[in-house]
Amino acid sequence: MEAVAGALVEPVVAFGRELRRREIEVGPGRVEAAIRALGCVDARELDETYWAMRCALLSRIEDAEAFDAAFTAFWRGAQMPGMRLERPLAPRKSMERREQEAGGPEGAGRSELSRVSLEPDSGNAEEAAEDPVGASFSSVERLREMNFSDWGPEELAAARPLIERIARALPRRRSRRLRASHRGESIDRRATMRRAMRTEGHPLELLRRERETTPRRMLFLVDVSGSMEPYARPVIVFCQAVRQASNRVEAFAFGTRLTRLTRELGERDPERAIERASRAVPDWAGGTRIGENLRVLNAAWGRRGVTRGAIVVIFSDGWERGDISLLDREMGRLHRAAHSVVWVNPLAGEPHYEPLAAGMAAALPHVDRFLPGHDLRSLEALSSTLEGLGSRERPGPVDRRGRAAVRARSLVPGRPILT
Amino acid sequence: MASRAEQLQEDLVKNSYLADRGLATVLSIAMTLHKPLLLEGEAGVGKTQLAKTLAEMTGVRLIRLQCYEGIDVAHALYDWNYARQMLHIRTLEAGHAADPGRVDELFSAEFLVRRPLLDAIENDDPEPPVLLIDEIDRADDEFEAFLLELLSDFQVTIPEIGTIRARRRPAVIMTSNRTRELNDALKRRCLYHWIDHPSPEREAAIVRARVEGASEPLARQAASFVAALREMDLSRTPGVAETIDWVESLSALEEPALTPEAVEMTLGAVLKEREDMELVRDCDLAALVAAARDEGD
Questions:
Q1: Domain for residue A24, yes or no?
Q2: Domain span holding position A366
Q3: Any chain A CB within 8 A of the CB of B52?
Q4: Hey, are the CB atoms on A45 and B3 less than 8 Å from each other?
Q5: Contacts of A56 in chain B (CB under 8 A)
Q6: What local confidence, expressed as pLDDT, does residue A330 receive?
Q7: Which residue of B has its CA nearest to A56?
Q8: In Å, how far are B7, B15, B62, B80, B197 from B49, measured between CA atoms?
Q9: Residues of A in Cβ contact (< 8 Å) with B176
């Protein structure tokens, strides 16, 4: 068996490289585990070989499809030592698509976003933003109030450090975990006894503990349909910055369909992250079906608890092309599971904005905070709203008649709908 | 000659756990390499049950650590019995024996409260136990970091007592419902497997293995019906455990086959949310039942 394992080293290492090429993260530890796992199975059985490699090299079910494509492509050509290749692997669905994506020109066509964010000189932006010279200061001020729809690549690059700073204020909530504290309510018995040892077993000093705070779960939903196109890019940069600061953040893009971006935005390098995110979104600048997307979100992700207790932030202008009653129902479902729902609408920055879009009007009863989102200043307002929401008890249901009355008054942008 | 994985698969079947070849292979690798196995999948696909069956089958003890938010070392590993420590101090005082040397007795094994993880590392069992770390995604990052340390060398240090090392490593099974992504470093320590909902045929076989006296047609029809439910837009998809409960209720009604009336009466065993019940009742129950009967036959 040792000899077999030795002969396996080279192909498994090469296969690891192949997986990395397909953006599945595989470190040397996993490759070593795969070699050892292969030593445990009957290497002549393709099935067992497959499972041995998969359990060691795969760590997320989302990567399974890409893994299968790589496995088929790689092992079909190279004969494994002592392996019978009589049974062909069943072709897995959409393998071809994956391969095209992996091999084709990267993100050609639809990824305008990546072109913008790949500006090579964005590193200078931070210097510019921190330059004490007055001219730079006023350019930052100008940038803060410039409408997102007027932004070009330079603005986006220059704003990144500002956006990252805004994103750092994360909402926190009290956790069940306790930590040492002078003012805490509960007595730390272990530490008290330990301290009592200094005084011959007399617990003279009571040591206390209090509940720690922890980042509250957040869920971002970004509308990437045509009407939202000029606003979606800065917002996605914002989401990436928030995602960097906490691993309790989920992000989705939606247009005609829902795309999870959490993993793409988890990439530390912002440019690569944004590029991967824009490649992942298949329906950039298309139509919108908000209700249908929320339905998918509630069904597929809500069940796992992703929405439960989370602060949900929806960036959208509320132009619904689908069924309004479905939007109403699914917003209700989302609102019941979530801690709170914040709706950020870039159009709400207009002085005389009224929520006339049918989708927006249907969604509002299920929204706790309604904010504008057209410039950096409004992102700052969003950030402080989120920070304030975290520690608060769930805003909770308000009786329907009361809510309608409050709503009519509070549509001043930035003001809470519920008080 | 059957491979190790095949053998394990057969043994699991004999113990009423119907694993597919993939799961059996991965489990046999984990046992051979003494690596923790991380199981992910929807609720109710049998992640926890696998650990239970494994322990039962190999005749070893199952040690279960249920994770929850805020779980820490005092809950998971060890704690001191404070009440006994206090009493001991009083006893020493009464005998005027409370000198520093005697007080050190307070932190000896006698006053140690052993929690599941310590139990899994240090025990007198003839064979190492199966350690089930259930719903690890509910714990927080700090606890994950602690587990990472524990799982890398199976030893823990209790400052007052010293380092305790496992003589033989327990088989470790971790489960996650994926309410959040686990730390990559923790995942690297583990072998990974995703358990899917079983096919209707397999599910029917599982039900028959689990429910005494369940007729074959009934089990197959119920499995097909549940498979159809999983395709629907429910807020909580029924797992295998629900199917088993349901067939038990149906068998108790002594129905030889699925009927709309029997489904109507027992639907609460499968669907646990009011919205889901309404959704299914709004569909044509008779048609759903007829489709399940067609497929089940």
A1: yes
A2: 218-409
A3: no
A4: yes
A5: 29, 191-192
A6: 92
A7: B191
A8: 19, 11, 11, 32, 14
A9: none
Rounded to two decimals, the pTM is 0.64
**C-beta atoms of B192 and A248 within 8 A:** no
Give the separation between CA A51 and CA B194, rounded to whole angstroms: 11
The backbone torsions φ and ψ at residue A123, rounded to the nearest 5 degrees and listed phi first, read -60, -30
Cβ of B29 within 8 Å of Cβ of A40? The answer is: yes
Nearest CB among B25, B28, B194 relative to A64 is that of B194
Whether the CB of B74 is below 8 Å from some CB of chain A: the reply is yes
pLDDT value of residue A381: 83
Give mean pLDDT, residues B181-196.
Answer: 89
Taking the domains of chain B in order of start, what are their residue ranges? 4-69+127-157+166-194, 200-296
Per residue in A225-280, pLDDT (tens digit) is 888 888 888 888 888 888 887 778 899 999 888 888 888 888 777 778 777 887 88
Mean pLDDT by 10 residues, chain A (419 residues): 62 89 87 89 79 91 87 64 37 39 38 33 38 48 77 78 75 74 80 80 80 84 87 86 84 88 82 79 80 90 82 90 90 90 87 80 90 85 81 51 36 42
Q: What is the dihedral of CA B133, B135, B139, B141, to 10 degrees?
A: 80
Contact B234 A299 (CB under 8 A): yes
Beta-sheet strand order (sheet of B191-194): B62-66, B130-134, B171-176, B37-40, B191-194
> Residue A302: its chain B contacts at CB < 8 A?
235
Token representation of residue A278:
């824009």
Strand (E) or helix (H) holding A405:
helix A400-409
Q: Provide ipTM, 2 decimals.
A: 0.74
Q: Which of A53, A83, A103 is the last residue of a domain?
A: A103
Within 114-133 of B, beta carbons closer than 8 Å to A belong to: none
Architecture of B4-69+127-157+166-194 per CATH?
A: 3-Layer(aba) Sandwich (3.40)
Tell whether A365 and A305 lie within a shared domain: yes
Q: Considering only CB atoms, which chain B residues are within 8 Å of A203?
A: 86
Same domain flag for A275 and A378: yes
A182 lies in a domain?
Answer: yes
Q: What is the pLDDT of residue A96?
A: 40
Q: What is d(CA A182, CA A186) in angstroms, rounded to the nearest whole number?
A: 10
Between vectors from CA B193 to CA B189 and to CA B198, what angle results, nearest 5°?
165
